[in-house]
Amino acid sequence: MRSFLVETARLDRGCMVVDLCTGTGSSALKMAQESGARVIGVDFSEGMLRQAYRKSPRGAACFWIRADATCLPISPSSIDRVTCTYAIYELSGDAREKVLQEAERILRPDGMFIMMEHLPPNRFFIKLLYLIRIYVLGTRGVRSFAGTEEERLARFFDRVKTVVAPGGKTKAVYGFKPSVMKGLERGFIPG
Prior knowledge:
This protein is an alpha/beta fold. 37% of the residues lie in helices and 26% in strands. It contains 8 helices and 7 strands, in the order αβαβαββαβαααββα.
């Protein structure tokens, strides 16, 4: 699935990426290794970031920042891609909105935001576990967000689309920060 993320994000050497809620850094490391992109993994958990650092091979173009994804210590319009893998559903509704605002703020015009999440499974028992995760254990607002990702992302990004990974178990939903002119048309003031 991480190779699918690299492909969907259209990464290349020198691309600057922020991986939100990076956890132990598996996606961030894969993006750096497969594409040559420079990746900043952000997580609020010091323990997770310690694991990410330990997993990092020498010379990996990955950097680890302990920060809250709702208030990033990153300059506006400075990042080419922002990714978030299997974590958007875990955020509360207010935090999810703030994370999307922050992603839009730090992206360069025409920069891309990509989120990956599991698709609802087809097999009954696995689907039941998935639904329990979403409807019982999920954070506030995940029920209204799951399945409406394109509509929600379109509030912050243009050209929002969903692509399904080979194998059909994961989806990536992505969109692009409006260009400066498009942003002015929408009422945004460049940061």
